């Protein structure tokens, strides 16, 4: 029987602490860096493996208060904190490609996702503002997964934002930008210890090219804005319980 026999559909809940880093650059010079820990809660579903084609979904919410090392709008160096609130929705389709022995299979994965986060700069301070990010992305890669109740879990692939909205609420005006896209990578590796318990280490990332310049008129002034080249990554672990 293909892939070691049918395996029932899996619904899994993960607690996912992570270390997060975000940097912005202009002409090769680093403008700011944010780094620190965030916590996430992740629910995922995967259709049973009695079929070659399958589908799955994932919903994640996350929060963190990280350190900010950069500058104020007037160029003055500043250290503060940035607050992150986020939610991600992802749908994917897969194909059971080949057996890797009796206990594991290799799947080809493709999907689409929508990520939303609020980036609250200088949280609790007097010089901050809110940024809302909404990238819509394509994801593709391969996964190794167990056909039995125990086994190794691994994934490797890339994602590409197809369209990104960034909105900055500057109190007196609101600016909307569209950062351009670079390909970024994701990976995970872990082990399923029983029918229910699993532990997985993961890496995820985003890379954005500089946006076009937006001109906003405020009174008789023409103000220009753009998002510099930006990239972020997170490294963490997921402690999961499969139902």
Proportion of beta-strand residues: over 45%
Biggest β-sheet description: 10 strands, antiparallel, barrel
Overall geometry: elongated
Kindly state the mean pLDDT as a whole number?
A: 92
- The strand order across the widest sheet is 1-2-3-4-5-6-7-10-11-14
Oligomeric grouping of the chains: single chain
Your description of this structure?
- This protein has 243 residues and is mostly beta strands.
- The chain has one domain (2-242): OMPT-like (Lipocalin, Beta Barrel), CATH 2.40.128.
- The protein is built from no helices and 14 strands.
- It has strands at 10-26, 29-46, 53-71, 77-100, 104-120, 130-146, 151-169, 174-177, 180-181, 184-192, 197-209, 214-218, 221-225, 229-242.
- The strands form two sheets. Strands 1-2-3-4-5-6-7-10-11-14 form a ten-stranded antiparallel barrel. A two-stranded antiparallel ribbon has the order 12-13.
- The protein is elongated and about 70 Å long.
- The relative contact order is 0.18.
- Mean pLDDT is 92; it is low at 1-7.
